[in-house]
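Suppose you are handed only these lines of text.
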Amino acid sequence: MREILGIDEQGLADAFVELVRLVSSRLPDDVVAALKKYRDLEEPGSRAQRTMDTLLVNAAKAEDGSRPICQDTGTVTFDIYYPFGLRESAMKAAIEKAIVVATGHHYLRPNVVDTLTGDSLEDNLGKGHPSLKFHQTDGGEFKVVAVLKGGGCENVGAQYTLPNTPLKAGRDLNGVKKVVLDAVVKASGKGCAPGALGIGIGGDRATSYLKSKEMLHRDLADTTPNPDLAELEDWVVEKANSLGIGPMGFGGRTTLFGAKAGVVDRIPASYYVAVTYMCWAYRRRSMTIKKGEVTYA
Ligand code: SF4
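From them, the structure of the protein bound to iron/sulfur cluster can be written out as follows.
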């Protein structure tokens, strides 16, 4: 570890604790900017605007006190991009040590339970939790993307197969638009709107969902180089916001503040569309380590 990253395993665990503190208590700048932008578009003095104000105050207080932005600190997910020479078992050990410490500091609520018994696991370590995805890379950089994925918004995610006869959705981007909008209408504010969508098109049941979750790693202000997907992303936000669902479903102009779409190639027999919904508490942070220097974004 020290030869490659410039820090030892305890240093790596400490760096992960800080990453968890940041992801739990500080919304990313792009999310705060989006919430402010859409707050200003709401009717002055309306319930929708007051709700957006409350969300922003909540986020600021969490940041000031290093407290969780939401009581549901969610499924803890890490995507770890690492150079050749690091052992996954050593990285996993450092992460698990950090999760226990972060739970003790109340950056995370004791949130994980035994699926079959419902008993709390107290330290947030369980089978498949935290959710770790390791990606070996050719470069020398070590980068981790951390997301805390709340349960309420996860519950309103959806997956469709095209064609979808009831929705008159065929196997093209118009069909994709119809099913994505159906997911927004079905959520109707549940999962703590406003939020952002990750959309995974193609692949199989698993990979379409993985692509949709990967899309939530993108900066809200970025633009996909594929013009058709860019048009789709803009259309989804604009159309969703014309439905009047609004913050928390109270009515208003802001149901979504972002949508990001990506594609996985497929086999001819299948055409999947997966929609992952991320609530306003869009907790995403990254950490990079190079030659012993740890930076967070
Ligand atoms: S959906 Fe998001 S904001 Fe709502 S309770 Fe869950 S984590 Fe919190």
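What can we learn from it? The CA atoms of residues 204 and 272 lie 6 Å apart. The first strand starts at residue 75 and ends at 83.
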